[in-house]
């Protein structure tokens, strides 16, 4: 199964470090970041999990839950958590999915459906494709997918920036230009007619080209 932006995020039941969940039910009406890892006790992922724990209040302020996944049992996640705290200063303060049967990794297209066996005996290299970030909206639709190579730590400040952008699009029908940062000007999306735009943005807009209608970021 190959997932794309605009697809419904597959629902599943799984054990986590905070108990058994049904994913869609656990999400509720929140946004969600689901990010995955090829193996416990791996160095790059250790830094990522700690930094995500540090950033959690920023995501919570945006109505967004965080959930991690690693292709190992929940008991291993609990042991790994102490290493993460020791090295990064923060232990995971969000649930971590135990995916020892590879079910969720396959469901989200991160491992082929034909991948045999369980997590037992598999190496990080075997699971190298389990390195994705998904942003999922309250409507359970996937808004972003980023896949990272094993040797590259993820930029979760960038994930936070993208979350801000997709939330603006969902609420105000605006898009964000290249390298946009919070508080900078945005662009009215092409699907909004000029007539509708005048109602939404009565102060008007700058238009260096007819299809580029630039307005201050809505609040």
Quick structural overview:
The protein is an alpha+beta fold and 219 residues long. 31% of the residues lie in helices and 22% in strands. It is elongated.
Gyration radius, in Å: 19 Å
What count of helical segments does DSSP give?
6
CATH superfamily of the largest domain: Glutaredoxin
What structural class results from the helix and strand content? Answer: alpha+beta
What pattern of helices and strands is seen along the backbone?
EEHEHEHEHEEHEEHEE
3D structure, described in words:
With 219 residues, the protein is an alpha+beta fold. The chain folds into 2 domains: 13-154, Glutaredoxin (3-Layer(aba) Sandwich), CATH 3.40.30.10; 173-215, Antioxidant, Horf6, Chain A, domain2 (Antioxidant, Horf6, Chain A, domain 2, 2-Layer Sandwich). Helix content is 31%, strand content 22%. The chain contains 6 helices and 11 strands. α2 crosses α3 (74-88).
Layout of strands and helices, then pairs:
Blueprint: E1 13-16, E2 19-22, H1 23-27, E3 31-37, H2 43-61, E4 64-70, H3 74-88, E5 96-98, H4 103-107, E6 132-136, E7 142-147, H5 156-172, E8 174-175, E9 186-188, H6 194-200, E10 206-209, E11 212-215
Parallel strand pairs: 3-4, 4-5
Antiparallel strand pairs: 1-2, 3-6, 6-7, 8-9, 9-11, 10-11
What are its keywords?
2 domains, 6 helices, 5-stranded mixed beta sheet, alpha+beta, 4-stranded antiparallel beta sheet, Antioxidant, Horf6, Chain A, domain 2, Glutaredoxin, 11 strands, single chain, 219 residues
């Amino acid at each position: 199964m190959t997932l794309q932006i605009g697809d419904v995020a597959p629902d599943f039941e799984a054990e986590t470090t905070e108990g058994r969940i049904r994913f869609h039910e656990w999400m509720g009406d929140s946004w969600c970041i689901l990010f995955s890892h090829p193996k416990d006790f791996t160095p790059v992922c250790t830094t990522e999990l700690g930094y995500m724990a540090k950033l959690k209040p920023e995501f919570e302020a945006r109505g967004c839950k965080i959930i991690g996944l690693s292709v190992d049992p929940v008991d291993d996640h609990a042991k790994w958590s102490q290493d993460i705290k020791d090295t990064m200063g923060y232990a995971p303060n969000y649930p971590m999915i135990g995916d020892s049967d590879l079910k969720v990794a396959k469901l989200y297209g991160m491992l082929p459906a034909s991948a045999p066996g369980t997590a037992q005996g598999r190496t990080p290299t075997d699971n190298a494709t389990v390195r994705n970030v998904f942003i999922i909206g309250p409507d359970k639709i996937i808004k972003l997918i980023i896949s990272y190579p094993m040797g590259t730590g993820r930029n979760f400040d960038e994930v936070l920036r993208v979350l801000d952008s997709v939330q603006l699009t969902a609420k105000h029908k605006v898009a964000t230009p290249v390298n946009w940062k919070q508080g900078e000007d945005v662009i009215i999306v092409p699907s909004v007619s000029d007539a509708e735009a005048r109602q939404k943005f009565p102060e008007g807009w700058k238009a260096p080209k007819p299809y580029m209608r630039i307005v201050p970021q809505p609040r």
